[in-house]
Design brief:
222 residues, binds S-adenosyl-L-homocysteine, binds 3,4-dihydroxybenzoic acid, globular, binds magnesium ion, alpha/beta
Protein backbone atom coordinates (compact mmCIF):
# COMPACT_ATOMS: atom_id res chain seq x y z
CA UNK A 1 0.00 0.00 0.00
CA UNK A 2 1.54 3.33 -0.96
CA UNK A 3 1.45 6.51 1.13
CA UNK A 4 -1.51 8.03 -0.75
CA UNK A 5 -3.65 4.94 -0.17
CA UNK A 6 -2.77 5.01 3.52
CA UNK A 7 -3.71 8.68 3.80
CA UNK A 8 -7.08 8.09 2.16
CA UNK A 9 -7.77 5.14 4.43
CA UNK A 10 -6.86 7.19 7.54
CA UNK A 11 -9.18 9.96 6.39
CA UNK A 12 -11.99 7.47 5.83
CA UNK A 13 -11.53 5.89 9.24
CA UNK A 14 -11.38 9.33 10.84
CA UNK A 15 -14.61 10.31 9.12
CA UNK A 16 -16.29 7.05 10.10
CA UNK A 17 -15.50 7.63 13.78
CA UNK A 18 -16.65 11.25 13.60
CA UNK A 19 -19.96 10.23 12.00
CA UNK A 20 -20.49 7.43 14.49
CA UNK A 21 -20.67 9.76 17.48
CA UNK A 22 -21.53 13.00 15.71
CA UNK A 23 -22.81 15.55 15.44
CA UNK A 24 -21.58 17.00 18.72
CA UNK A 25 -23.90 19.19 20.78
CA UNK A 26 -24.36 22.90 20.21
CA UNK A 27 -21.82 24.11 22.82
CA UNK A 28 -18.97 22.09 21.32
CA UNK A 29 -19.89 23.01 17.74
CA UNK A 30 -20.17 26.69 18.70
CA UNK A 31 -16.77 26.55 20.40
CA UNK A 32 -15.20 25.30 17.18
CA UNK A 33 -17.12 27.85 15.09
CA UNK A 34 -16.11 30.82 17.24
CA UNK A 35 -12.51 29.62 17.45
CA UNK A 36 -12.42 29.55 13.65
CA UNK A 37 -14.06 32.99 13.44
CA UNK A 38 -11.55 34.30 15.93
CA UNK A 39 -8.73 33.20 13.66
CA UNK A 40 -7.38 30.57 16.05
CA UNK A 41 -5.38 27.72 14.50
CA UNK A 42 -7.45 24.54 14.07
CA UNK A 43 -5.27 22.38 16.29
CA UNK A 44 -7.81 21.39 18.94
CA UNK A 45 -8.21 17.71 19.79
CA UNK A 46 -10.66 15.76 17.62
CA UNK A 47 -14.19 15.05 18.82
CA UNK A 48 -13.22 11.44 19.42
CA UNK A 49 -10.13 12.40 21.40
CA UNK A 50 -12.19 14.89 23.38
CA UNK A 51 -14.44 11.99 24.33
CA UNK A 52 -11.36 9.99 25.34
CA UNK A 53 -10.16 12.83 27.61
CA UNK A 54 -13.55 13.01 29.28
CA UNK A 55 -13.67 9.24 29.64
CA UNK A 56 -10.21 9.15 31.26
CA UNK A 57 -11.07 11.96 33.68
CA UNK A 58 -14.38 10.33 34.60
CA UNK A 59 -12.78 6.92 35.04
CA UNK A 60 -10.12 8.47 37.26
CA UNK A 61 -12.88 10.07 39.34
CA UNK A 62 -11.19 13.42 38.75
CA UNK A 63 -12.22 16.52 40.70
CA UNK A 64 -9.24 18.71 39.77
CA UNK A 65 -7.77 18.88 36.27
CA UNK A 66 -4.87 21.00 34.99
CA UNK A 67 -4.54 21.75 31.29
CA UNK A 68 -1.43 23.28 29.73
CA UNK A 69 -2.47 24.94 26.44
CA UNK A 70 -6.10 26.15 26.28
CA UNK A 71 -6.53 27.43 22.69
CA UNK A 72 -10.30 28.03 22.28
CA UNK A 73 -11.31 25.83 25.20
CA UNK A 74 -12.51 22.86 23.14
CA UNK A 75 -10.66 20.19 25.12
CA UNK A 76 -11.40 22.15 28.31
CA UNK A 77 -15.15 21.75 27.71
CA UNK A 78 -14.75 17.98 27.30
CA UNK A 79 -12.72 17.76 30.53
CA UNK A 80 -15.02 20.06 32.50
CA UNK A 81 -17.98 17.81 31.65
CA UNK A 82 -16.22 14.97 33.43
CA UNK A 83 -16.06 16.95 36.68
CA UNK A 84 -18.56 17.29 39.51
CA UNK A 85 -20.25 20.67 40.06
CA UNK A 86 -17.64 21.69 42.61
CA UNK A 87 -14.80 20.41 40.41
CA UNK A 88 -12.01 22.60 39.04
CA UNK A 89 -10.23 22.83 35.72
CA UNK A 90 -7.34 25.27 35.56
CA UNK A 91 -6.14 25.86 32.00
CA UNK A 92 -2.95 27.76 31.14
CA UNK A 93 -2.68 29.85 27.97
CA UNK A 94 0.01 32.27 26.80
CA UNK A 95 -2.14 34.08 24.22
CA UNK A 96 -4.59 36.65 25.60
CA UNK A 97 -6.86 36.39 22.55
CA UNK A 98 -7.02 32.59 22.74
CA UNK A 99 -7.91 32.89 26.42
CA UNK A 100 -10.72 35.38 25.64
CA UNK A 101 -12.22 33.11 23.00
CA UNK A 102 -11.93 30.15 25.38
CA UNK A 103 -13.65 31.96 28.26
CA UNK A 104 -16.58 32.83 25.99
CA UNK A 105 -16.84 29.25 24.74
CA UNK A 106 -16.72 27.89 28.28
CA UNK A 107 -19.35 30.39 29.43
CA UNK A 108 -21.73 29.39 26.64
CA UNK A 109 -21.22 25.76 27.62
CA UNK A 110 -22.35 26.67 31.15
CA UNK A 111 -19.01 25.68 32.67
CA UNK A 112 -17.64 29.02 33.93
CA UNK A 113 -17.89 27.95 37.55
CA UNK A 114 -15.61 24.99 36.88
CA UNK A 115 -13.10 26.37 34.38
CA UNK A 116 -10.47 29.00 35.16
CA UNK A 117 -8.23 30.16 32.29
CA UNK A 118 -4.93 31.68 33.41
CA UNK A 119 -2.95 33.81 30.98
CA UNK A 120 0.83 33.64 30.89
CA UNK A 121 3.80 31.48 29.97
CA UNK A 122 3.01 28.03 31.34
CA UNK A 123 6.59 27.62 32.59
CA UNK A 124 6.11 30.58 34.92
CA UNK A 125 2.51 29.82 35.82
CA UNK A 126 3.46 26.24 36.77
CA UNK A 127 6.36 27.46 38.92
CA UNK A 128 3.96 29.78 40.75
CA UNK A 129 1.45 26.94 41.23
CA UNK A 130 4.17 24.75 42.74
CA UNK A 131 5.25 27.60 45.06
CA UNK A 132 1.65 28.20 46.11
CA UNK A 133 1.09 24.49 46.69
CA UNK A 134 -1.91 24.35 44.34
CA UNK A 135 -1.66 20.62 43.74
CA UNK A 136 -2.44 17.87 43.66
CA UNK A 137 -4.32 17.52 40.40
CA UNK A 138 -6.02 14.26 39.47
CA UNK A 139 -5.33 14.71 35.75
CA UNK A 140 -2.80 16.93 33.96
CA UNK A 141 -3.10 17.38 30.19
CA UNK A 142 0.03 18.74 28.48
CA UNK A 143 -0.82 20.30 25.09
CA UNK A 144 1.14 23.58 24.69
CA UNK A 145 4.43 24.20 22.81
CA UNK A 146 6.08 20.85 22.15
CA UNK A 147 9.60 22.13 23.04
CA UNK A 148 8.34 22.64 26.58
CA UNK A 149 7.12 19.07 27.15
CA UNK A 150 10.13 17.76 29.17
CA UNK A 151 9.93 20.75 31.53
CA UNK A 152 6.14 20.54 31.75
CA UNK A 153 6.53 16.91 32.78
CA UNK A 154 8.98 17.86 35.51
CA UNK A 155 6.62 20.55 36.83
CA UNK A 156 3.66 18.16 36.57
CA UNK A 157 5.43 15.62 38.78
CA UNK A 158 5.34 18.22 41.55
CA UNK A 159 1.60 18.78 41.15
CA UNK A 160 0.32 15.20 41.33
CA UNK A 161 -0.39 12.43 43.86
CA UNK A 162 -0.22 8.65 43.54
CA UNK A 163 -2.98 7.65 41.11
CA UNK A 164 -2.96 10.88 39.12
CA UNK A 165 -2.82 10.75 35.32
CA UNK A 166 -0.39 12.76 33.20
CA UNK A 167 -1.38 13.04 29.53
CA UNK A 168 0.72 14.38 26.66
CA UNK A 169 -0.88 15.30 23.33
CA UNK A 170 0.69 15.00 19.87
CA UNK A 171 3.39 12.53 20.77
CA UNK A 172 3.50 10.89 17.32
CA UNK A 173 2.62 13.80 14.99
CA UNK A 174 2.30 11.87 11.76
CA UNK A 175 5.67 10.29 12.42
CA UNK A 176 7.56 13.62 12.51
CA UNK A 177 8.42 12.66 16.07
CA UNK A 178 10.99 10.33 14.51
CA UNK A 179 12.90 13.16 12.79
CA UNK A 180 16.17 13.58 14.73
CA UNK A 181 16.84 17.05 13.23
CA UNK A 182 13.64 18.66 14.48
CA UNK A 183 13.71 20.31 17.92
CA UNK A 184 10.01 19.73 18.68
CA UNK A 185 10.48 16.08 17.73
CA UNK A 186 13.52 15.76 19.99
CA UNK A 187 11.63 17.29 22.91
CA UNK A 188 8.66 15.00 22.36
CA UNK A 189 10.90 11.93 22.21
CA UNK A 190 12.62 13.09 25.38
CA UNK A 191 9.20 13.45 27.03
CA UNK A 192 8.15 9.94 26.00
CA UNK A 193 11.52 8.48 27.03
CA UNK A 194 11.33 10.04 30.49
CA UNK A 195 7.85 8.65 31.00
CA UNK A 196 9.02 5.21 29.88
CA UNK A 197 12.04 5.26 32.20
CA UNK A 198 10.62 6.95 35.30
CA UNK A 199 9.95 4.26 37.92
CA UNK A 200 7.24 6.50 39.43
CA UNK A 201 5.23 6.36 36.20
CA UNK A 202 3.45 3.59 34.32
CA UNK A 203 2.72 4.76 30.82
CA UNK A 204 1.86 4.07 27.22
CA UNK A 205 1.87 5.93 23.93
CA UNK A 206 -1.57 5.47 22.43
CA UNK A 207 -1.57 6.00 18.65
CA UNK A 208 -4.63 7.93 17.48
CA UNK A 209 -5.92 8.37 13.96
CA UNK A 210 -6.91 11.70 12.52
CA UNK A 211 -6.03 12.70 8.95
CA UNK A 212 -2.70 11.27 9.98
CA UNK A 213 -1.46 9.20 12.87
CA UNK A 214 -0.83 11.09 16.07
CA UNK A 215 -0.58 9.90 19.64
CA UNK A 216 -1.59 10.55 23.22
CA UNK A 217 0.87 9.59 25.93
CA UNK A 218 -0.93 8.37 29.05
CA UNK A 219 0.91 7.83 32.33
CA UNK A 220 -0.27 6.98 35.82
CA UNK A 221 1.66 8.12 38.86
CA UNK A 222 2.35 5.25 41.27
N1 LIG B 1 -5.90 21.92 24.30
C1 LIG B 1 -6.42 22.64 23.15
C2 LIG B 1 -5.36 22.87 22.09
C3 LIG B 1 -4.13 23.61 22.57
S1 LIG B 1 -3.15 24.21 21.22
C4 LIG B 1 -7.58 21.84 22.54
O1 LIG B 1 -7.37 20.67 22.22
O2 LIG B 1 -8.68 22.39 22.37
C5 LIG B 1 -1.77 24.83 22.07
C6 LIG B 1 -2.01 26.13 22.86
O3 LIG B 1 -0.87 26.33 23.70
C7 LIG B 1 -2.12 27.38 21.98
O4 LIG B 1 -3.29 28.10 22.27
C8 LIG B 1 -0.88 28.20 22.34
O5 LIG B 1 -1.08 29.60 22.34
C9 LIG B 1 -0.58 27.71 23.75
N2 LIG B 1 0.82 27.88 24.17
C10 LIG B 1 1.94 27.78 23.40
N3 LIG B 1 3.03 28.00 24.15
C11 LIG B 1 2.61 28.23 25.42
C12 LIG B 1 3.27 28.52 26.65
N4 LIG B 1 4.60 28.63 26.73
N5 LIG B 1 2.51 28.71 27.75
C13 LIG B 1 1.15 28.60 27.69
N6 LIG B 1 0.48 28.33 26.56
C14 LIG B 1 1.20 28.15 25.44
C1 LIG C 1 -0.16 21.36 16.70
C2 LIG C 1 -0.35 21.50 18.07
C3 LIG C 1 -1.28 20.73 18.72
O1 LIG C 1 -1.46 20.80 20.07
C4 LIG C 1 -2.03 19.81 18.03
O2 LIG C 1 -2.93 19.06 18.71
C5 LIG C 1 -1.87 19.67 16.65
C6 LIG C 1 -0.94 20.45 15.99
C7 LIG C 1 0.81 22.21 15.99
O3 LIG C 1 1.46 23.02 16.66
O4 LIG C 1 0.94 22.06 14.79
MG1 LIG D 1 -2.56 19.08 20.78
Amino acid sequence: MNTDDTRTLLEEIDEYIDDLFGPSDEALEAALRDSRRGGLPEINVSANQGRLLRLLAETAGARRVLEIGTLGGYSAIHFARALPEDGTLISLEIDEHHADVARNNVERAGLSDIVEVRVGDAHELLEAMIQDDEGPFDVIFIDADKEGYPEYLEASMRLVRPGSLILGDNTIRGGTVLDPTEETARATREFNRRIAEDPRLYGIVLPLIRERIDGLTIARVS
